[in-house]
Design a protein that fits this description.
The protein is an alpha+beta fold. About 25% of the residues lie in helices and about 25% in strands. β3 (about 35-40), α2 (about 45-60) and β4 form a beta-alpha-beta unit. It starts with 13 loop residues before the first helix and ends in a 24-residue tail after the last strand. Mean pLDDT is about 90; it is low at about 1-20 and about 990-1005.
Length: about 1000
């Protein structure tokens, strides 16, 4: 990592600069004219590269070039893929290439495609050893395998393998077989438990872990885990005997990779590494007969998803399952220069393009004869790190998930990967590790769970220094850390609730207090003084290692009080998709220019928010206006190249449940220019439309360009946006009130119809239809909903008279809830009806406002979070007027609650609330007693009006419900708070008690 340089090497020898005397012929008249040669022990990258070359050449010419090993004689022209005996005869070895470097060399009878491949380096893939049946995979704690799309079925199946356990007990859990699903996170794991001889089969359904385990002796054992959703059961068998059962609830692992021997980590030691031997791995889509003896070697059948005999001499094992899907893929962040050489050759000499995952995105010519010539190309990508958020992709849009393998292959083809690099929020694990014993290490001045660390606390700083040194000494990263390769990340939690102790507050920059940009310098001196403390100490013991940091939010600007240490690598977070707000463009340019000016040689990476406006649309519940900006990308990539940015990461639309088509052209242009900045960005855009849409290119180019011009041009936005000194994001009103107007939508509709009519071939029609379904239809639907909501917005916020009830002395259990007022109908945040059974009731006794919020549901589905608002919660807002600050209380399923004051000088609200939460009888009910004297600034009295909002939130911003819909801006848009009219008259029975002093109190169960 010390050699963090941005290198794009293009070496052409004088001899090769001249045209070759004769072309190299790959196919002639639809027949193969050359043979592909790989080593008998080829790397994973070389094997897959040979298959990719063979597949694409067949698509172009109709000829299938044979693939042979270097142990077989070959006559005629040869294509040498990866290092082999033949390349070594030319003096070409994989290990002599630098990281990510590759060579394309064309001679009349020999085509060489070779580069640096990770599998050539010792210890990166499991070696072979004598197994239970033939050979086995030897795992020493530094290797792990990931097999994409093993054909897993969440309904029912079997995971099994032969394993050899050494007598020495491991310090960590050792993964034998594992699958991790998403949305929600679930898993199946067969492992050897830490510090024991226990084998365990575990499943997690997103809510509860179920496990079965049994002690075994050292040596060989057959391990089998079965699961059946219909029967609701998992079962563990060891050596053919059942060791017990446990309940099973369906998981979400259908399209995820199978991990063997550990959890592969980019550029680092695998998580939960296994030590021992693994043989005869089989994954089945049926519950194998329990009476069948543990055996092998197995033969594949219709239910076999993966079958690894592990009998290859070296390299990754290949599945022997019937209809095996494909060869293993090289790791995205492992060196696979040979594969990049093949892709370079296919693009440069065979005119192949990959505009989307799968067949629909593949563009290539058709010709029966293919001959190539040209100078040597020996190079590596300009940016050494290129990545996107690793989430499922959707085409045309949800729920149409791109198959996992198709997505991973597309990433390889677009040269995603390179150097492993990840820096992000780093201290989540400290809460479990240290909060109880060292509360002073955490942000002071907050009730409940501290939102941040105390970045001036000496004990905390020394612990961070030790954690970093331990990581660099090979002891692993602590839980929650972001550490990869030679970089240990130090990034605060994702909020700006800084510690309120005097030391920390003195570090904040008062000159930045009124900066309205999201990226600013309010805490730059504070955060980077902490980063520098750690960096200086780590450099004393590990001078060749790096501390990683983000320029983000309150600490985006370069600090004013001291230089950042030279062993700190920076990633700058930029809102480049939002340059339609001129002040945001100026601010992004300022951040980039200042970090480069202050430190001309510092390694810089960028974190780009391509996820807007998808994120806003998901959180605020509207259909967005597409954020096309490919032409801006060309300009921005030139800016990054000038600043010598060497790594790029993109959050994107599919991360927030939107179509990958939103980012299709933007991804392509960004990644092509990140790989090779000498390319003409405008030409890349023009070629995309011509080659991808064919006969429909004209109207599709016009449609995209008109949408792009509308989205990116500040003049299309209200004057307030053009003059805004702060950051801005798309709202529903901007999307359809300013951008997607009736006139523009009519123009877009005509172009969409023209494209549909112009498409000729089935593939052109499919591509146009995908755009129509994934982009255009959601635009139409977004505007339709906007118009409907405009009608709803004309309705006044709700107004409820809050009845007075006999005194309950702040005890919700003593309230006569039958006399409380029903809040009435609930809706989504944007005013649409909900089928969920939600109820709210309110009452007061002159001293307390009593609130009851309830929903009929399965309590087992509720998620409780230490942060309260990150899980399921009920929220209440109270204010003296609309459109201003408000006091907010959030309550989680277990009664944990958080009270804050929004828009007040003192952000904490000493609410005095009594909170009772219970989850029985098929519902979740929260009851609150809120002292009227503390409810709003100045207090509230009977006969007065309190403005209020009540909301129901779920994790991930899904299914947000409201008593008074906000129509955008989340819960914090207080412009549409409802009215609570506190009834002046009180029941006679309670008259004498109304003047009792309000009872304070802590939350019950909070």
């Amino acid at each position: 990592m010390r050699t963090l340089t941005t290198a794009c090497i293009l070496i052409a020898s004088a001899a090769a600069a001249q045209a070759a005397p004769a072309p190299f012929v790959l196919a002639r008249g639809g027949k193969p004219a050359a043979t592909i040669v790989v080593a008998s022990s080829a790397t994973t990258a070389a094997r897959f590269a040979a298959a990719e070359l063979q597949t694409h050449l067949h698509r172009i010419t109709g000829a299938t070039l044979p693939i042979v090993t270097d142990e077989q004689p070959v006559s005629g022209a040869r294509v040498l893929v990866g290092e082999s005996a033949a390349t070594r005869a030319f003096g070409l070895r994989s290990a002599t290439f630098r990281s990510q470097e590759y060579l394309v060399r064309i001679r009349p009878n020999t085509l060489v495609l070779i580069g640096r491949d990770a599998d050539d380096l010792p210890g990166t893939s499991p070696r072979r050893a004598p197994g239970r049946h033939g050979r086995a995979l030897r795992f020493t704690g530094t290797q792990a395998i990931s097999l994409p799309e093993p054909g897993f079925n969440d309904e029912a199946g079997t995971l099994e393998a032969w394993v050899w356990l050494p007598a020495e007990q491991p310090e960590r859990d050792g993964t034998i077989l594992r699958l991790d699903g998403a949305d929600p996170w679930t898993y199946h794991i067969i492992q050897r438990d830490a510090n024991s001889n226990r084998i365990t089969y575990r499943t997690y359904d997103g809510k509860e872990v179920r496990a079965i385990g049994a002690e075994v002796t050292a040596g060989w054992h057959h391990v089998r885990g079965t699961y059946d959703a219909r029967a609701g059961q998992i079962e563990l068998f060891i050596d053919g005997a059942s060791r017990g059962t446990a309940p099973y609830a369906r998981t979400t692992c259908r399209e995820v990779p199978l991990q063997i021997g550990g959890i592969p980590q980019s550029g680092g030691t695998p998580g939960n590494p296994f030590v021992g031997l693994i043989d005869e791995v089989r994954l089945s889509t049926t519950v194998r007969d329990a009476t069948q003896a543990a055996g092998g070697p197995y033969t594949p059948d219709a239910h076999t998803g993966v079958l690894l005999h592990c009998d290859e001499a070296d390299g990754l094992p290949v599945s022997n399952a019937a209809g095996s899907r494909s060869l293993p893929l090289p790791g995205l962040y492992d060196d696979h220069g040979t594969l990049d050489a093949v892709y370079d050759f296919l693009e440069r000499h065979c005119d192949v393009r990959w505009y989307a995952p799968g067949e629909v995105g593949l563009v290539h010519p058709r010709r029966a004869t293919l001959a190539v010539r040209g100078p040597d190309v020996r190079r590596s990508p300009a940016m050494i790190h290129r990545s996107i958020t690793p989430v499922p992709l959707y085409i045309p849009g949800p729920p149409h998930k791109v198959p996992h393998r198709e997505a991973e292959v597309w990433k390889l083809r677009l040269r995603l990967g390179g150097q492993a690099f990840w820096v992000c929020h780093s201290f989540e694990g400290y809460y479990d590790r240290f909060l109880k014993e060292h509360p002073d290490w955490f942000a002071q001045g907050y009730s409940g769970r501290p939102p941040q660390m105390c970045y001036t606390n000496e004990g905390f700083i020394q612990q961070v220094i030790q954690d970093a040194r331990d990581y660099f000494d090979g002891k692993g990263a602590p839980p929650g850390a972001t550490a990869t390769g030679d970089v240990y990340g130090l990034v605060p939690q994702d909020n700006v609730s800084w510690c309120r102790c005097a030391r920390c507050q003195a570090e904040l920059n008062p000159a930045e207090a009124n900066n309205l940009q999201f990226n600013n310098g309010k805490a730059s001196d504070y955060v980077f003084r902490f980063v520098n403390r750690v960096a200086r100490e780590v450099r004393k013991t590990h001078p060749d290692k790096w501390i990683g940091a983000l320029a983000y939010s309150d600490y985006a600007y370069y600090p004013t009080k001291e230089k950042v240490e030279p062993n700190v690598v920076m990633q700058l977070c930029l809102h480049t998709r939002n340059w339609w707000c001129p002040s945001m463009e100026a601010n992004d340019r300022k951040v980039l220019a200042e970090w480069r000016r202050q430190d001309p040689e510092r390694p810089l990476y960028v974190w780009l928010y391509y996820n807007f406006p998808a994120l806003n649309a998901q959180y605020d519940g509207f259909g967005y206006f597409p954020g096309f900006f490919a032409h801006s990308v060309v300009t921005q990539m030139r800016l990054y190249q000038k600043a010598r940015v060497q790594g790029i990461f993109m959050e994107h639309s599919s991360e927030f449940g939107q179509s990958t088509l939103m980012d299709q052209l933007e991804f392509y242009v960004t990644l092509k220019l990140a790989d090779d900045p000498s390319l003409d960005g405008q030409k890349l855009i023009d070629e995309f439309f011509t080659r991808y849409y064919g006969a429909a290119a004209g109207p599709m180019r016009k449609l995209y360009t008109r949408i792009e011009q509308t989205f990116t041009n500040p003049a299309c936005y209200p004057e307030a946006i053009q003059q805004s000194p702060g950051h801005q994001h798309q709202t529903e009103e901007l999307a359809w009130g300013a951008l997607g107007t009736e006139a523009r939508m009519a123009e877009f509709a005509r172009l969409m119809a023209q494209a549909r009519e112009a498409a000729r071939t089935p593939l052109e029609k499919e591509r146009v239809a995908l755009f129509e379904q994934g982009i255009w239809n959601q635009m139409v639907e977004g505007r339709r909903k906007y118009l409907e909501r405009q009608q709803r917005r004309t309705q006044a916020p709700p107004r409820v008279t809050v009845p007075a009830v006999p005194p309950a002395e702040g005890d919700p259990a003593r309230v006569d809830w039958s006399r409380a007022a029903d809040l009435g109908q609930w809706a989504t945040l944007v005013g649409e009806p909900t089928t969920r059974k939600v109820e709210g009731r309110v009452a007061h006794d002159g001293h307390y406002l009593y609130v009851q919020l309830a929903e009929e549901l399965d309590p087992a589905t509720l998620v409780a979070s230490p942060q309260v608002f990150d899980g399921d919660d009920w929220e209440g807002f109270f204010a003296t007027q609309r459109g201003a600050g408000a006091r907010q209380i959030c309550v989680g399923p277990k009664g944990a609650h958080l009270a804050v004051a929004r828009g007040e000088e003192k952000e904490t609200w000493d609410s005095g609330a009594v909170v009772v939460s219970d989850t029985v009888d098929g519902r979740w009910r929260v009851r609150l007693a809120l002292p009227l004297a503390r409810l709003v600034p100045g207090g509230a009295k009977p006969g007065e009006v309190v403005y209020a909002g009540f909301y129901r939130a779920s994790p991930g911003a899904r299914d947000l419900l409201a008593w008074s819909p906000t129509f955008g801006g989340g819960f914090h848009n207080t412009s549409r708070l409802g009215e609570l009219v506190l009834e002046a008259n009180t029941p006679a029975a309670g008259a004498g008690a109304l003047f009792m002093a309000p009872r304070g109190g802590n939350a019950l169960g909070g």
